[in-house]
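Structure tokens please, single chain.
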Amino acid sequence: MVARFAAFLFVAFAFLATPALADSAGDAKALVDRVHKAAFEAAHEGAAVPQSVRDAFDGPFIAAAALGKYWDGASAGDRSQFIDALTDAIVKTLVRRLGKHRDQDFQILSTKTITGGDVIVRSRLSPPAQDPLTIDWRIHRCKAGLCIADLIVGGASMTVQRRDDLTARLKSNGGSLPKLIADLRKNPIRL
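Here you go.
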């Protein structure tokens, strides 16, 4: 009896959750498409990058993950400045990277909902005479709705790679977050 009730609850939950997951996947795909189009236009038409592109990234989440153990010891002011510097660097790098390609070189391939409700939007950048590059956009819920939490380029998490880069920069500057922020504004990260 308990097993049947548990099975009923599982099926009912799966049935009820399916439309929400489908909506999230569709919304995640639309977010990636909007960010790509806005970044492409900014790169090719000289337009300013819209604030909506910057807002599409979960800056606090990415900053905390990328800063690692240094996040806990940072002041609220340093955290805020670091979030701004890192998000700006990510957006500038994305615009620069997408700006090297034609619009038709970018294609969204699929979506997949993973554990925890995050959605992976798989895309491919296929420039002429070059090997295609797979870019997975990890999308999750944040205060603003859906936000980009990570980019996985060629199978490697940019957040993990940036954490290694930022940790090395911090070690080389004596652990000073304000110096790292200034350095990040001068020398953006590479995606």
